[in-house]
Amino acid sequence: MTGRYTHQHGVRHMETVIDRTPGLPDWEVTIQRRLQLAGYHTAAFGKIHMMPDRDFNTMRTCGGKGARWTHSTGLEIGPGPLGPDYAHWLESKRPGAYEEIYAQRRQPEYREHHTAIVNVRSLEEYVDYWIAENPIDFLRRDHDRPFFAWCGFCGPHGPMDPPEPYHELYSLNDIPLPDTRTAAGDPHKPPWSRGSARAFAGPDGEAVWVGPLNSRTAPGTASTESARAAGRAARLQTLGPPPRLPRDRCSQRW
Q1: What sign for the dihedral angle of Cα 29, 77, 107, 101?
Q2: Does residue 217 belong to any structural domain of this protein?
Q3: Is a pLDDT exceeding 70 seen at residue 174?
Q4: With CB atoms 3.0 to 4.6 Å apart as the test, which of 21, 33, 121, 177 could cross-link to 15 if both were Cys?
Q5: Is 200 domain-assigned?
Q6: Which residues lie closer than 8 Å to 180 by C-beta, 6 or more apart?
Q7: Which of 96 and 189 is assigned the larger pLDDT?
Q8: Do 143 and 201 have their domain in common?
Q9: Which of 168, 201, 219 lies at the terminal end of a domain, its last residue?
Q10: Residues 88 and 161 in one domain
Q11: Which of 33, 87, 84 is nearest to 57 (CA)?
Q12: For residue 238, is pLDDT > 50?
């Protein structure tokens, strides 16, 4: 969105509490801003991997499905990233439907099946359906100037929760599994593909480790704060601290 490398604009990692992630500095010029200056109407729909969302004339966005979230609000990791735009649209269709998504995630099957569930929402209420409807409506409008529309979908991404009938379109017996599915710790696999721990928020907001574990991760549970600290330390060890360049060195215009 800027045409610049991460070491130039400084956004090099994401915090466990996503809303605390350092956003794109305000002096960075985005492609959508350049298009606005050229007379374009800019629009964003769905999950666009930008923080904060900016330089769009029209926005209907969300932060993703967020497999860690079992409550829409009240967890230490922040509010559910499905977000207010989708929540308001869904609630206008059927009051209570948004909270039912998170209530389903608090059922035992969600953790037992590692988020692989049939979504309680119908296809017409599913988040990716809502995302697709927005740019379709936008494209059907009469436009008196050129436009730029950016659309991103939440899937494929955890939780693995397709609505009916998509959960049964294909038989698992007909899908060959790759050889690389072997358990974590296989010495013949490169380190980055040996599996990693996933942290999901438990009923009280604690981070619960599930999924394959690598050699540096102990099984069991860890508090949200310790999980956050461990993740931050690993990022700093790998990347070093993100640069904070003086404003006059970051304000170049092309």
Answers
A1: negative
A2: yes
A3: yes
A4: 21
A5: yes
A6: 189, 193
A7: 96
A8: no
A9: 168
A10: yes
A11: 33
A12: no
State mean pLDDT over 57-68.
94
92: burial class by Cβ within 10 Å (0-12, 13-18, 19+)? exposed
Q: In this structure, are 148 and 244 located in the same domain?
A: no
In-domain check, residue 76: yes
Are 60 and 161 in a shared domain? Answer: yes
Entry pTM: 0.71
Pull the structure tokens for residue 141: 């409008």
- Return the structure tokens found at 104: 């389903």
Per residue in 187-215, pLDDT tens?
A: 666 665 555 444 444 445 444 444 443 33
Question: Using CA atoms, how far apart are residues 200 and 110, in angstroms rounded to an integer?
Answer: 11
Residues 150 and 54 in one domain: yes
> 243, 7 in Cβ contact below 8 A?
yes
140 found inside a domain:
yes
The vertex-22 CA angle with 16 and 27, nearest 5°, equals 165
CA distance 137 to 85: 15
pLDDT at 173 (0 to 100): 84
Could you give the count of Cα atoms lying within 13 Å of 85 in the half-sphere of its Cβ?
18
Q: Which of 104, 133, 168 is the last residue of a domain?
A: 168
Residues listed for the chain: 254
pLDDT at 176 over 50: yes
What gap in Å lies between CA 124 and CA 220, rounded to an integer?
38
Per-residue pLDDT, 98: 96
Range of the domain at 236: 191-249
